[in-house]
Design goal:
Layout lengths: L7 E5 L4 E5 L4 E5 L7 E3 L10 E5 L5 E7 L6 E7 L4 E7 L3 E3 L2 E3 L3 E10 L3 E7 L1 E2 L4 E2 L1 E4 L3 E5 L5 E5 L3 H5 L4 E2 L4 E7 L7 H21 L8 H13 L31 E2 L3 H11 L2 H12 L12 E2 L10 E3 L10 E3 L11 H14 L12 H14 L18 H21 L2 H19 L2 E2 L4 E2 L14 H4 L7 H15 L21 E2 H13 L3 H11 L12 E2 L6 E2 L5 H18 L7
Antiparallel strand pairs: 1-2, 2-3, 3-4, 5-12, 6-7, 7-8, 8-11, 9-10, 11-19, 12-18, 13-14, 15-16, 16-17, 17-19, 20-21, 22-23, 24-25, 26-27, 27-28
Pfam family, one: Glyco_hydro_15
Protein name: Glucoamylase
Organism: Cyclobacterium amurskyense
């Protein structure tokens, strides 16, 4: 089987994300939000997904893509067989204006001739209702109006409207601008406005990167991953989605095709840890606000994931779209919101700890009340003996998962620190008691003959999530104990080239076929923690090659072919990369002038 990688780059402005293929097609664009209906969705159906391409009238051309340095501005270069060439610059406007960020539902495409006067043809066919309807194109004086959506969709341009409407190729003799808007249209002069927006957007991203605490270790990868992570935060509420795509299969024929355009509670800890490393408090604070405003049920319980708005109901429906490469089913919504996943209470407590422990937050910002903290501790207490679906969201299996108890332990440790700062003796005693109970549960997962911890109480199956016992400091300074556990995980779950399986036993859909990339980065972190630093560095170098042409990483990797699978790019693969890079850099701890 040949190696498969995702051939798209993406742009975004913390309001929407678009995927752009090397053939200039926008194959995925949901507006006005990450979880909205798609305007372009050929990623999931070539016939019904619409199209937005800027191509020569013949197929004899070559193309390549690259990001403009330290930005989320994407260039696609097209060269024809006759030697003529042009460049398409795609970006989502984002910059500071009138004391706030300007991030409109506006996608801009700038087309520049580079060699000769190449002929191009612009096709723009947006759709609605998950591809059931093509929007009707109505020509106006300097734009095309697309009707059929609840909001106005408009393509404004300085080139001939007739050429676009009549599917006609034309010579590119000057720079052409295309501005696609959802809602408020562009009413300003197009050439000067686009150039101003482009320069302001580039300046914004480059200043953002400059204000980021980047380690010396693999800086370019860290910068790109940071930029990817940033545009997956929906700034209006602060929520961070797992991925901007839906139903990209974990492996061919697996039917493990999920909608990942939502915010998973369990990932708050890892994501906030990264933002803390990056030194970006703006994103931290937005995420804190998001967590504070999430609804609970009538028992005070959270669910595993929420919409970016904080909405709780994410009803899963199956669409009749063809699917990515014909892989079905195509799902919108995610029934995992109904699951019981009890690690999330500790996740929230650990995530909120910086509000109380970090001196950069002033007292007035610590708006969480004691009842809020007590509720989280009460939920840890209530669920200590309750079986759950675990972080891998088993749909027909409930167990007492080691990973859940790890976060009961970590959350209780965080609550102890919070109680210290609140001078609350009762909270302190409760948190200490829960910490000890969690330790007993974790130890009940121990397999003496392997000197390792199993996935859950009563099973001997290994699980990559227990790598977190090492990286989160459960073993303290006992390197030997941590390394024993790591060796058992390596024996069962390590694939070739430092790739790592989540688990190997059968689940609701059979035995997993692909490795999970964030687990591989957890493994790299664990190697660094047990002072196997040379292996950690070699592993990081090896894993860094499992990206696409733009250094973007997917959710899953096939160890046999190196193919990318799963939703793309996967935010938490990039989070895993960032945390591993920071961990290695901290262990190296040497002046940057030493090789």
């Amino acid at each position: 089987m040949e190696k498969h990688t995702y051939g798209t780059g993406l742009i975004g402005n913390c309001s929407y994300i678009a995927h752009i293929e090397k053939n200039t097609n926008i194959s995925w664009l949901c507006m006005p939000r990450f979880d909205s209906d798609f305007l372009f969705g050929s990623m999931l159906d070539k016939k019904r997904g619409g199209e937005f391409t800027i191509l020569p009238p013949h197929e004899n051309y070559t193309s390549r893509q690259e990001y403009q340095e330290n930005s989320n501005v994407l260039d696609t270069y097209i060269e024809t067989s006759e030697g003529e060439a042009y460049k398409v610059t795609d970006f989502a406007p984002r910059f500071f204006n009138y004391d706030r960020y300007y991030k409109p539902s506006m996608l801009i495409r700038k087309i520049e001739p580079l060699k000769g006067e190449p002929k191009i043809k612009i096709n723009c066919f947006p759709v609605s209702d998950h591809g059931k309807y093509k929007l009707k194109a109505i020509p106006e004086s300097n734009h095309i109006q697309f009707s059929g959506r609840d909001q106005e969709v408009r393509l404004t341009t300085n080139c001939s409207i007739t050429y676009i409407m009549e599917d006609q190729a034309f010579h590119l003799q000057k720079t052409v601008y295309l501005v696609l808007t959802y809602g408020s249209p562009l009413e300003a002069p197009i050439e000067s406005t686009v150039e101003k927006f482009l320069n302001s957007t580039l300046k914004y991203w480059r200043n953002w990167v400059k204000s980021t605490s980047i380690p010396n270790f693999h800086q370019r990868l860290v910068v790109r991953s940071s930029l990817v992570l940033k545009i997956h935060q929906y700034e209006d509420t602060g929520g961070i989605i797992a991925s901007s795509t839906s139903s990209l299969p974990e492996s061919p024929g697996s039917t493990r095709n999920w909608d990942y355009r939502y915010c998973w509670m369990r990932d708050a800890y890892y994501t906030l840890n990264v933002f803390n490393h990056l030194g970006h408090f703006e994103e931290l604070e937005r995420y804190f606000e998001y967590l504070q405003n999430l609804p609970t049920d009538n028992r005070g319980r959270y669910q595993p994931l929420y919409a970016i708005t904080g909405s709780a109901k994410l009803i899963e429906v199956i669409s009749d779209l063809d699917g990515y490469r014909g892989e079905k089913p195509v799902r919108f919504g995610n029934d995992a919101y109904t699951h019981i996943q009890n690690d999330l209470y500790g996740q929230v407590l650990v995530s909120l700890l910086p509000l109380y422990a970090d001196k950069r937050f002033v007292e007035s910002e610590k708006s969480h009340s004691k009842p809020f903290i007590y509720n989280l501790l009460n939920k840890i207490e209530e669920t200590m003996d309750e079986k759950d679906a675990g972080l891998w969201e088993f749909r027909n299996l409930k167990q007492e998962h080691c990973y859940t108890f790890l976060f009961h332990w970590a959350g209780s440790c965080a609550a102890i620190k919070i109680a210290e700062r609140m001078s609350d003796t009762e909270m302190m005693e409760k948190a200490l008691d829960l910490k000890n109970k969690a330790i007993q549960k974790i130890e009940a997962c121990y397999i003496p003959e392997r000197k390792a911890y199993a996935q859950a109480i009563g099973t001997k199956n290994m699980d990559a999530s227990t790598l977190q016992l090492i990286t989160m400091g459960y073993f303290g300074n006992d390197i030997e104990r941590a390394n024993d556990h790591l060796k058992a995980l390596e024996e069962d779950l390590l694939a070739k080239n430092f790739l790592f399986y989540r688990y190997k036993h059968q689940d609701d859909f059979g035995e997993p076929e692909t490795t999970f990339l964030i687990c591989a980065f957890w493994y790299i972190e664990a190697l660094a923690c047990v002072n196997r630093l040379d292996e950690a560095m070699e592993g990081f170098e090896t894993l860094s090659k499992y990206c696409n042409h733009l250094k973007l990483f997917s959710e899953d990797v096939d160890q046999h072919t190196g193919s990318q699978w799963g939703n793309f790019p996967q935010t938490y693969s990039h989070v895993g990369l960032l945390n591993a890079a920071y961990r290695i850099d901290k262990k190296l701890d040497k002046p940057n002038f030493i090789l």
